[in-house]
Amino acid sequence: NAEDVVFSISHPVPVVISVNPDSGLTSEKSIEVTVTGSGFLDGCVLHLRDPDSCEIVVTSGPTVVNEEGTSVQGTFDLSGLSVGDYVVRVVNPDGQSNAEDVVFSISHPVPVVISVNPDSGLTSEESVEVTVTGSGFLDGCVLHLRDPESGEIVVTSGPTGVNEGGTSVQGTFDLSGLSVGDYVVRVVNPDGQSNAEDVVFSISHPVPVVISVNPDSGLTSEESVEVTVTGSGFLDGCVLHLRNPDSGEIVVTSGPTVVTEEGNSVCGSFDLSGVTAGNYVVRVVNPDGQSNAEDV
Q1: How many C-beta atoms lie closer than 10 Å to residue 241's C-beta?
Q2: For the whole model, what pTM was predicted?
Q3: Neighbour count for residue 221 (Cβ, 10 Å)
């Protein structure tokens, strides 16, 4: 025949079965992926597309296809992309692409805590500002102090401020009424991810402070003189001493004491019989071993 009736031969449409890895982080500037399937041609490109709008959110660099056309490797720059699930598209040089919705997920990295400053506070502090350094902190994250044994949250920060690089976050803790001890710092991002590092924040009682003692004198003939010491930071179970200001030697120790609810006054009694006359300094020693420094 003389008629030019055409018979066309084309490459098969590419088919995508899987992608490995099937997820990445917004912090990754170059992640290599391997797509398996069939019909991949030299010079094909890889896309990640929004499944709703079909918009291409990222395109791979140069790709490498195996001889059988069943595997293709390429790299994606995920930095600055929105988190979510995207579909993988392989587009051959002839414009044909796969139709299968194989998913690649993008998420924020898990936050990492390196340090907290300050790393301690007092049970008397109603608002202590801390700065946590590390990486992966997102706007809207919250700070917790958690019991290292039970995992219980003992205090949560107020609103936080995160720097532009996500490497520093500031917040405040109300430590009033908390138990003394070591707690771990947790940064929890809005997506629910939190750090795993056990960076410690320690809570302790404040050092007792002595302002005055009443009466401020006694006689060597008194076997029981009751005194009231005023100041702050006195704990139940504290003891009163009179100490030699030169040697630091304890010359007399009180019997049982009574502390006010606010911890600003403590009563106890001294047996002054047989004590050498002179001036002595008053020491209040709490059960945790802390004592005042003032020479009242």
Answers
A1: 19
A2: 0.79
A3: 9
